[in-house]
Each structure stands twice: as C-alpha cells, then as structure tokens.
Amino acid sequence: MRFYRLLPALLVSLGSSAFAAPTVTVEPRGFTITTPRLTATIRDGVIVAVKDLKTGEVHADAAVNEVAMPRGLGHMAGNIPEMQKLHSPWGNQQMKQDVPPGTAFPTMHWPAPDAKFTTSKLTTGLRATWTGLMNATAKFPAESLSLDCWVDASTGQLLLRASASSPESGIYGVQVPLANLHPDHRMYVASFGGVM
After folding, report:
1. How far is CA 37 from CA 26, 100, 148, 157, in A?
2. In 3D, which of 113, 95, 96 has the Cα closest to residue 43?
3. Tens digit of pLDDT for each residue in 165-175?
4. Which of 1, 17, 46, 162 has CA atoms 20 to 30 A from the CA of 109?
C-alpha cells in the first residue's frame, strides 16, 4: 500500500489491477468499490474495509468497527487549543502527549447520523457527499464532506480524493482514514508531520 497526502485533499493509492473498470455498490451511508484485485468499503467518510481479492487477505475488517479517530473536516471554529493538541509536532504516546484512544476529536467534523448522503457517477468511479456534519457536542448542517473514488486508467490504481466545505472560516484539513487495520500490519510513511 502507498499513501500520498495532498492538502487540502487526500489521495490514497490502494494498488488495483490496471485498466479495470470498477463495480460500485451504493449503501445507505457509503459504498463498496470492487476492482479485479481488491474491494474497499467506505462509510461516513472512513475506509472501513479493504480485501485483496487475489490472495484473500483482509487488510481492514469493517466488523472491527474502530473508527474513533480523527476523520472528516478539520475545523478550528473557536477550538484552537483542541486543534493544537491534534497537531503537536513532537507529541506521541510514549511522551503522554497524544490524544487518548476513543476520544471524540472536537475539531474534527464527521457525518452526523442524519446527514444527507448523495452519490454521482464518475467516469471510472463515484463521488460520495455527506451533508450535515457533527463533532461530539454540536451539529453543522451546512458543512459537507465529499469523496471521489476512481480507478486511474493508466495505472489501474484505486484513488481517493477528499474535499470538504463549511460556511465558516477555519478549515485546516480533511482526513479520510483507513480504519480497522489488521493488528499485524505495519505502515511506513515518509512524512514529517501530518500522519496520525
């Protein structure tokens, strides 16, 4: 797997077979996209499942349901101290400078349970949009999170690009995490900051 970070969008390459058009199954809160090599499921702006169809290996299992992590639209909205906690350049768990597991991230706005979910077809994929975001204490009905998911015709890679909007200023980023990873997986990312 390879991960690329583009601000303000996130581009994820999940390596699928070249030149293959995907099949897309739309679900009430997300979708599953299948190529000849893999299947990926996205719900509420989180990649919750990934399976290699060639080997049968499950990289991420939706049944694990561990999505309590930074996700969606990052917004300062009067929460500058909370935003600073999420963006401490040297903080880590060993130094007790991290955010505890399972914490609701007040600066991250994700799709609310009553968010409006819409899709539109792309040439080789799908655009999904959730309108009506929330954090742990408030709802933001005019905010939206969008995710384009498609197969690159020249490489066959499954690509994702996220964007978000808010009528209020203060957006500092967008995150579409890969959740529910198998505990034996290791990820190596050449990055100085920006990785959670």
Report:
1. 19, 36, 19, 10
2. 113
3. 999 988 888 99
4. 1
Beta strands in 28-104 (DSSP E): 30-34, 38-43, 46-52, 58-60, 72-75
- HSE at residue 154, side-chain half, CA atoms within 13 A, is 0
User: In the structure encoding, which two tokens stand for residue 152, read together?
Assistant: 């690159």
Cβ-contact 151, 58 below 8 angstroms: no
More confident call, 21 vs 116:
116
10-62 pLDDT per residue, tens: 334 444 444 557 899 999 999 999 988 889 999 999 999 999 999 999 999 99
The type of residue at 38 is L
Instruction: List alpha helices for the chain, DSSP H.
Output: 80-86
